[in-house]
Design goal:
- The complex is a heterodimer.
- Chain A has helices at residues 2-5, 10-36, 43-62, 65-74, 99-108, 156-194, 209-255, 261-283, 297-310, 329-346, 393-396, 405-415, and strands at residues 80-85, 118-122, 129-135, 141-146, 293-296, 314-318, 324-327, 349-356, 365-371, 419-424, 430-436.
- Chain A is an alpha+beta fold.
- In chain A, the strands form three sheets. Chain A has a five-stranded mixed β-sheet. Chain A has a four-stranded antiparallel β-sheet with strand order 1-4-3-2. In chain A, strands 5-7 form a two-stranded antiparallel ribbon.
- Chain B is built from nine helices and 13 strands.
- In chain B, helix 7 crosses helix 9.
- Chain B is elongated, with a radius of gyration of 19 Å.
- Chain B starts with a strand and ends with a strand.
- Classes of the chains: A alpha+beta, B alpha/beta.
Chain lengths: 440, 236
């Protein structure tokens, strides 16, 4: 029992499947042979064969051995082919004996009983012919075969079905069995597809021995990658935090300088570095992961828009007064703020539309931020979501941050299981659309 | 009136010196300390009007120092942190700190925050309406240390700093009319996002956020006088 419980190797399983297949094939063939022995032919057919055999036996037997071959050839008709042989031929292996037909023939010509008559079914190709032999009185043999399929014995369709049914059944069986053996590999492929998308989940160890080892190695690798990324992230975040103290010194030192253009320029640079560190730390996920809580998304969006409007921007909000959804509030607010800031950086006017979609059309909450800026070239729409990517280097100079703005949005939205889609509006400008799953 | 004395606890020597200088140039007396032991010594040397406390200190952390300090004294405390993390801010405020400032900061921001905290009447802080406790009205919850407003359905409703401060003032004086001039004055002593935003705009935004189609927000306008939060407020 212990042996059975141990998972067989992939090789073992395949061999077992082949073995079972062969066994069933063997069983089916045996059944076919058994059935062949009971095949009967029409009476006139048996009569004709019996007569031909009796005549041939007598005529060939009367000739001298040297002439028997020629006689056999002469006796060959368009129906039966005959051949004389001084010694017996070995019995063909794959040719079921036709016992019932033999009984019919001997009933017509009882004299053939002493001739050790054998009748076998031979099927070269799809045509079934009957072959057989009989012994002459002096111990030599006459062999014969029908040149046309015997009337009444053409059961080709039945035989094909008999052979096909087990074959099909076996293919299905082997398919199901192999599929079961390979299922853990499929799960592994799915998991491998998810690597690097934020989900770190070990794959359940299952299946044949080799597959188990692959899954286990994969799980270990996944964990090592996670640890590696976490380590790098921590180091980067630590650098970000530590830079803040010298930056604070620089800030205060600069403010103590006499007022002139250089002082203003340095303060501007310091402010830019501060913004970069803030956006870097936001991208790295902040000091601690936020957990989702119920929040009023409508009020959140309005606050972001009010804020932009207070700074003199043409920012508008369209949507309900209240819309509650379970989200990581601070990171979603950061995402919405980034989209609005981005829109105002490249355009003059920003419109934020918030709506809860009908359940019939898939459901979800849509936050759409549209601007009237130049948009993004179609071939760059995906690229801008990557971290540290900034389009047009010419304008990169007055862009604040590392170009992490949209990556932060993409990450925040992905954390909620939502999607971020960027598209160019027909009327010009960019349309950034956040779709959040509507889980109440 | 003598210049206010500020106890500055900061482990980075240069930053300590620079911060001290920035404060001195703006008319404050500064007693610098590098860590907990020096802080206790400095406190023994005479009264202090405000403590500026770095969160990440060698030895005893700023958080622990704040807890101990609060047990002994009501002196206003402002936290400084390079982490800018929400937890630090909330923990600090829950421990009884009066404000939180993220590093790196400029002189103007630092001085504005120090002045704002110093300007708060002592009673305001003691009563806890400044940053302590939880206020409830009509199913709504105002969490003061977290600076969060929660709707009757349990959703967090986003408020700007100025809006939150205004709501707290209205809740503190619930069922009493507050003159517009007084609100403007109060909004200046607190540190909302921007004090030049008109009170009327803030009130209308608060109304929109607190109201819904069926039930308007419980903020009433008393024509020619000011505003009033027209519901009972409970303090916990």
């Amino acid at each position: 029992m212990r042996l059975l419980k141990r998972p067989a190797g992939l090789l073992g399983q395949v061999v077992a499947i082949l073995l079972i297949t062969l066994l069933i094939e063997f069983g089916a063939s045996t059944l076919l042979y058994e059935r062949a022995s009971s095949f009967a032919v029409r009476d006139d057919e048996a009569n004709r064969l019996a007569e031909h055999l009796v005549i041939s036996r007598r005529l060939i037997g009367e000739r001298q051995p040297a002439q028997r071959g020629t006689m056999a050839a002469e006796l060959t008709t368009d129906r039966y082919a005959l051949l004389w042989s001084p010694t017996p031929h070995p019995t063909p292996r794959i040719a079921p004996a036709l016992d019932e037909m033999r009984r019919q023939v001997i009933e017509w010509e009882p004299s053939l009983r002493d001739a050790r008559l054998t009748l076998r079914l031979l099927s070269p190709g799809r045509r079934s012919v009957v072959t057989g032999g009989m012994r002459l009185v002096d111990g030599s043999w006459v062999y014969f075969r029908t040149r046309e399929p015997l009337a009444g014995i053409s059961f080709t369709a039945e035989r094909i079905a008999l052979a096909l049914i087990p074959a099909i059944a076996l293919m299905v069986l082997a398919g199901v069995a192999l599929r079961r053996s390979f299922r853990p590999l499929k799960l592994l492929a799915t998991a491998a597809d998810q690597v690097g998308r934020g989900v770190v989940e070990p794959v359940a160890i299952d299946g044949p021995g080799e597959v188990r080892r692959v899954i286990s190695a994969f799980n270990d690798m996944q964990e090592r990658i996670r640890a590696l990324i976490a380590g790098r992230t921590q180091a980067l975040a630590a650098v970000g935090h530590d830079l803040r103290t010298p930056l604070a010194r620089l800030h205060l030192r600069t403010e103590a300088l006499p007022h002139d253009d250089t002082r203003e320029a340095i303060l501007h640079d310091v402010a830019e570095m501060e913004a970069m560190i803030t956006s870097l730390l936001a991208f790295l996920g902040g000091a601690e992961p936020e957990s989702p809580s119920m929040a009023d998304l409508a009020v959140l969006c309005e606050t972001v828009i009010d804020d932009a409007a207070d700074r003199g921007a043409d920012a508008r909000y369209h949507g309900p007064d209240h819309l509650e959804l379970r989200v990581r509030r601070l990171s979603i607010k950061r995402a919405v703020t980034n989209l609005v800031e981005n829109a105002l950086h490249y355009g003059e006017r920003v419109t934020l539309t918030l709506a809860r979609e009908d359940r019939e059309t898939g459901g979800g909450v849509v936050i759409r931020v549209s601007d009237d800026g130049p948009g993004i070239p179609e071939d760059k729409l995906q690229e801008v979501l990557e971290p540290f990517v900034r389009l047009d280097p010419a304008r990169g100079r007055d862009t604040v941050g590392f170009g992490l703005g949209l990556s932060i949005v993409a990450k925040a939205v992905a954390d909620e299981g939502g999607t971020l889609t960027l598209s160019n509006r027909a009327a010009g400008g960019l349309d950034a659309c956040i779709l959040l799953p509507d889980i109440q | 009136m003598t210049a206010p004395t500020i106890l500055l606890v900061e482990d980075d020597p240069s930053l300590r010196m620079l911060t001290a200088r920035a404060l001195q140039e703006n008319g404050f007396l500064v007693r610098p300390a590098s860590a907990a032991p020096e802080m206790w010594l400095a406190l023994d040397n005479g009264p202090v009007d405000l403590v500026l406390l770095d969160i990440m200190l060698p030895g005893t952390s700023g958080i622990d120092l704040c807890r101990t300090l609060r047990q002994k004294s009501d002196v206003p405390i402002i936290f400084m942190s390079a982490r800018a993390s929400e937890t630090d801010r909330v923990v600090g405020l829950e421990l009884g700190a009066d404000d939180y400032i993220a590093k790196p900061f400029g002189t103007r921001e630092l001085v504005a925050r120090v002045r704002a905290v110093l300007r708060r009447p002592p009673m305001d802080r003691l009563a806890g309406s400044a940053e302590q406790g939880v206020l409830t009205f009509d199913g709504w919850t105002i969490n003061l240390p977290r600076r969060e407003l929660t709707s009757p359905t349990g959703a967090i409703v986003d408020l700007t700093g100025a809006e939150f401060d205004l709501l707290v003032v209205l809740a503190d004086h619930a069922q009493r009319v507050i003159a517009r001039e007084r609100l403007i004055e109060l909004s200046r002593t607190r540190l909302g996002d921007s004090s030049d935003r008109s009170i009327d705009v803030l009130v209308s935004r608060l109304r929109r956020k607190l109201g819904s189609a069926g039930t308007p927000a419980p903020i009433v306008t008393v024509r020619g006088v000011g505003y009033m939060l027209n519901v009972a407020v409970e303090r916990q």
